[in-house]
Design brief:
This protein is of the alpha+beta class. It is built from four helices and 17 strands. It has helices spanning 27-37, 69-83, 152-161, 197-207; strands at 2-10, 15-18, 44-49, 59-62, 89-94, 101-106, 111-115, 121-127, 130-137, 140-146, 168-174, 177-184, 189-192, 214-222, 225-234, 237-249, 253-256.
Amino acid sequence: MRIRYIPANPAGNLTALVLSPVPVGERAALSARLMGACPEGFEQVGYVDEASLLSDFPRLDMMGGEFCGNAARAFGLYAALRRGRDERALSVRISGAQRPVPVMHDPERGEAYADMPLPLGMEQITALGRSVPVVRMEGIAHAVLLNAPPSGETAEAVLRAMPPEDAQGVLFVEGARMTPLVAVPAAGTRVWESSCGSGSVALAALLCEGRDDGIHTFSFDEPGGHLRVHVTLRGGRPARAVMGGSVTLGTEREIDLP
């Protein structure tokens, strides 16, 4: 099977944007094979609906039906370039999000920002004898471990305690540094990601608790780069969250999978 794809690098979160048509039921297994075979070292895979690229809302579906803000940023930039209309803003449909996600990009700075879906709620779970906050978002939930160094053993314990979702993140936070692990049950993957857009928004929303209304800006150092999040609070609750940073796209490539 020959697969066409675009390598995307949103703040180090290496993503394959697959252009070849792949049946939905085969995507999870194919994604694992791609991640193992492609030399770029992809952390995740998204499937582009090429027929939608010229429509009002180009569509991308992630490998397990989850939501990914970094993939949305990269795909929005790719779709705008393919459309050739000199668009600096474009809304895209992406799995795990109920509404189109607006993406704004600045080619001169090599950056793109996504107007992210807001957290759906927060709850507490218990793992390894400690209370852990979980921020639920569309298509993914993130457990936040403050003042905790990355640990695979800890991550597994937290994942076991989390409610089921299309994707689950465990965020290890040390000061302004955040190290994310993301599990996608449908694809059978657990990846220490180089950056995580939805995780950055989840962390920013948690840090906003108790703050005054207005715009609050956060910058997180993540293993593959920096992500910035602007959270607008109204009535003590997030009313808008914009997340972004660097994005680069490679040229179209092909790989033959047995």
